[in-house]
Known about the structure:
By secondary structure, the protein is α/β, with parallel strands linked by helices. Helices cover 35% and strands 17% of the residues. Helix 3 crosses helix 4. The protein is globular and about 55 Å long. The mean pLDDT is 95.
Amino acid sequence: MNTHRLGQTGPQVSALGLGCMGMSDMYGPSDRAESIATLHAAIDAGMTLIDTGDFYGMGHNEMLIGEALKDGLRDKVTISVKFGALRGPDGGWLGYDARPQAVKTALAYTLKRLNVDYIDIYRPSRLDPAVPIEDTIGAIAEMVQAGYVRHIGLSEMGPDTIRRAAGVHPISDLQIEYSLLSRGIEETILPTCRDLGIGITAYGVLSRGLISGHWQKDRTTDATDFRARSPRFQEGNLEQNLALVEALRQIAEARQATVAQVAIAWVAAQGKDIVPLIGARRRDRLSESLGALDLILTAEDLAAIERVVPKGAAAGSRYAEMQMAHLDSER
Length: 331
C-alpha cells in the first residue's frame, strides 16, 4: 500500500482510506459482524486511514470502530472524526453546533466511544453559521495543545472559510465530495487547498454507489436509505446517470477492470494530494475497491473517460436542495 502525506502538516496515510458511515447509518441495514470483518480486512490490506463521524448512527459508528480496534490495532490506524451535526431521537437533523464548548464536549464523548486517548484528525462536519470558524478551530487547537487531538481538518468548506481556518492553525486536509459526477471543487476549492498546502480526502468517489457499476434501475431502496430521496437517484435523473455508467463500463472492460475501480482510480489520478475514501461495508466490495490501486490510468484512458463522463454530466444535485443550502462549499 502506497502512502501519502495529508497536506504539508498532516499525517502519512494509506493511498485509500475507509469511510465507515454506511456501517451504521444512511444506507439502510448493515451487518455488524461483516462491518467489523471489513474493518479488519482493510487494516490487513494496509489501509491506515479510518474515517467516521460522531453522528453516524448517533455514536454507533464510533463504538463499532472502537470494538474493531480493541485488540491492539489502535496504533496501526489514523482515525479521522467529524463532529457538529445535531440529531434528535428519531434520527432527524437539527442543525449544527460548533461552539468551543460544544467542540470540547463532543470530543470528550468521542474519545470514550472509541476508547482511545486521542483523535488523529478532528474536523467540524459543516460550517456553523452562528459561530466564526476561527472560534471553532481555536477550540480544537486547544485540544491539540492538550494532547487530545493530533491534527485539524475541515469538511465541506469554501475557499474563504478554508483560508480563515488556516490562519488560526495548520489544516491537514479538507474532506469533501469529489468524483466523476461531483467536480465542483476544481474551480476554486482545490486550487485554494493546493495554495495553502492542504490535502484532500475525497468522499463519495462512487457517488453513493451510483457509479459503482452495481446499481440497478429497479433496485428497491430501504426507507432508512437516504438515496431514496437523493436527487441523482430519482426517476428521470437515475436513467441519465446510469447511461453514463454504461459508457464508463466499456472503458473499464477494455482495461479488464470494473466500473468502480475506474471511478476510484480517476479520483486518485487527479493528484497525490488527494486520498479517496472508500465506503465499503462488505469485504467483497472492499476487495474490489482495493483493485483500483493496481489500475494506472493512461492519458488516453483519462481522455476517454472525460469524453463519456464530461464535467457537469450528472443529472441532479449531489444533495437535496435544503442540504445544499447548508454547504459552505457550495456558496
